[in-house]
Design a protein that fits this description.
single chain, 355 residues, mainly alpha, two-stranded antiparallel ribbon, globular
Length: 355
């Protein structure tokens, strides 16, 4: 527990104190994101007041996580694990893809950033390399960081061939990163929701550590490798997002940008895969799923029925167009995320009780 607390505390300090330094640097160089505005044929919520707000704040989150993870292992002189390094690879690798996207938004003033195909290729390269590496590095008992079995609250009997497993991981990573990216449209919305998800993974990983099969093989034990290191990573991610939220909450002084949203989404997917809770991610990242479904429903409705399901997608902009204040939308969506996570944790614990 000391390692988990230290990781979270260090991450909060680095993000909380480092973000204003990043804000000053970005403002000094005029690195602000282009803001989408309404046109005659396409109305958009009034966000003109956000013009000039610097982006690429995800750099502060990534710096907080890396500093906390490294600092914790140095203080307690414990080696990093393959599981921890794999989640960091998703965070940094996908954060790099997002950084390229933010570069175009900032320096080219192109509000859409990278082309969709280019972004998907970048995500695929990182996700596929993660999938392949995650089934290497077997420990003394023969367990690898990830399992080729599809998991819910632990591995199921459905074991995938390696090629299908790689595609499954690619799908999970791409869906989660895009979910966080689409949710990052209001001040603090994605940051706060992600903090809750990482907090849930702290609880899950600590529980798996205490009930791990390496201590005693029982019907309800968890064979998850390196659960304590996953808890350290989750604490560092929750702490970094929490510290960044101080500056990202409305009215935001900085946006996380795709550097943050893609990196965070990748880290969430990585924790789900390595903690053997892949399908439970639908609840632990419930808000992100709802937002993605709103976009899919909007596009499908328009193409099939030639009418829009919502005034605007993603879903949070629909409520803005209905006149809800931005802060009200954000807080109510946080509540929705909390309810989804609560349901996920109940299912996780309930399965252990039944076992």
């Amino acid at each position: 527990m000391k390692l988990v607390v230290l990781a979270g505390g260090l991450a909060i300090l680095v993000a909380l104190l480092g973000t204003p330094l990043l804000i000053k640097f970005l403002r000094r160089h005029g690195y602000s994101q282009a803001i989408r505005v309404s046109t005659d044929g396409e109305p958009y919520p009034a966000h003109e007041g956000k013009k000039g707000t610097p982006s690429m704040g995800g750099l502060a989150i990534i710096a907080g996580v890396l500093s906390a993870y490294a600092g914790t292992h140095l203080v307690f002189w414990t080696p990093p694990t393959a599981s921890g390094l794999l989640v960091l690879w998703l965070l940094v690798g996908l954060g790099g893809v997002g950084m390229a996207d933010d570069y175009l938004k900032i320096f080219k003033q192109r509000s859409t950033g990278l082309r969709a195909r280019t972004k998907l290729i970048g995500q695929a390269v990182v996700a596929i390399s993660f999938a392949f590496l995650s089934v290497q590095f077997a420990d003394s008992s023969g367990l690898t960081p990830a399992s080729q079995a599809v998991s819910f609250v632990r591995d199921t009997s459905l074991v995938l061939p390696l090629a299908v497993f790689v595609l499954w991981v690619w799908f999970l990573v791409t869906a989660t990163t895009n979910g966080v990216n689409l949710t990052d449209g209001l001040d603090g919305l994605a940051t706060g929701a992600a903090t809750m998800t990482f907090a849930a993974y702290i609880l899950i990983s600590i529980w798996q550590f205490g009930q791990n099969c390496s201590y005693a093989v029982t019907a309800s034990c968890y064979p998850t490798p390196n659960p304590l290191d996953l808890a350290i990573i989750a604490a560092a991610l929750a702490g970094a997002c929490f510290g960044f939220l101080w500056w990202n909450a409305a009215p935001a002084r900085i946006f996380m940008g795709d550097t943050g949203s893609l990196g965070i989404g990748g880290a969430i997917a990585g924790l789900a895969i390595l903690s053997r809770t892949e399908l439970l991610l639908a609840l632990l990242g419930g808000l992100f799923l709802i937002v993605v479904l709103s976009v899919i429903g909007q596009v499908g409705s328009y193409k099939i029925l030639h009418r829009r399901m919502f005034r605007m997608a993603p879903l949070h902009h629909h409520f803005e167009m209905k006149g809800w204040p931005e802060v009200q939308v954000t807080v109510r969506f946080w509540i929705l995320q909390g309810l989804c996570i609560g349901a996920g944790l109940v299912l996780f614990y309930g399965e252990w009780v039944r076992s």
